[in-house]
Design a protein that fits this description.
The chain is mainly alpha-helical. 67% of the residues lie in helices and 5% in strands. Residues 1-9 and 212-229 have low confidence and may be disordered.
């Protein structure tokens, strides 16, 4: 029988560790736009060898978070309006699909966790804690992504959602972020009612109104009453 290559599995774990550390540092602003990423410094900081660092940087470049020039430097990318515009409808559509797939599978415990996540999200916004708001928002949406159990959705979101998270730091540091709380509430209510189509529509709207790049929503009491203005 073939012998599994355990060294490959270990390398993948190191690559993922490097990717996660760098992605999070870029999204939270620790690594700023234009900052040069030196492999030797990243090795010491993250505690992995150069190969997983290089693999992580290539993955980050595909995600639009870093820019590399052959034979020169690798730097954190600037916030690119076009890249955000390109990624936003894809991320919104995949979250819409995730919610549509997840709704029939959500348990009462999942719904309660989503409500708790939105409460934590709202509280973090009120006290101006952007990092906590992003973490709570991530946790809320991840419940549906996990319940959807679609590996392609998960992989594509892992690649492109961080690009939008950088924009969200701007949105969530302003009063505009409070609009997401109401959209989350309507999405969760629809999930609880088993209304997958309406829940999916609210999920899509949540991502398409990010940082004012989409129309501001008017949310009425009924599940179906959603208008853009």
């Amino acid at each position: 029988m073939p012998i599994p290559d355990t060294s490959l599995a270990g390398r993948v774990l190191l690559r993922d560790r490097a990717f996660t550390a760098l992605r999070d540092a870029i999204v939270d602003g620790t690594l700023r736009p234009g900052e040069q990423l030196r492999e030797s410094e990243l090795e010491r900081w993250i505690g992995v060898s150069r190969t997983p660092i290089r693999e992580a940087l290539m993955r980050l470049e595909r995600s639009g978070l870093v820019v590399s020039k052959p034979g020169r430097s690798t730097r954190v990318s600037a916030l690119d309006d076009r890249a955000v515009r390109d990624a936003q409808p894809v991320v919104a559509a995949l979250h819409e699909l995730a919610v549509r797939l997840a709704t029939p599978a959500l348990t009462p415990a999942d719904i309660e966790a989503m409500r708790a996540g939105n409460a934590a999200f709202a509280a973090a916004l009120e006290r101006g804690d952007v990092t906590a708001a992003l973490a709570a928002d991530d946790a809320l949406h991840q419940i549906c992504v996990t319940a959807a159990s679609n590996t392609v959705v998960t992989e594509v979101l892992d690649q492109y959602a961080p690009l939008l998270r950088r924009v969200e730091r701007v949105r969530f540091s302003s009063a505009a972020g409070l609009g997401s709380v109401a959209l989350h509430d309507r999405m969760i209510d629809a999930c609880a009612a088993g209304d997958a189509a309406t829940a999916a529509a609210f999920a899509h709207m949540t991502w398409m109104t990010l940082a004012g790049t989409g129309p501001a929503p008017e949310v009425s009491g009924g599940h179906g009453l959603v208008r853009a203005r």
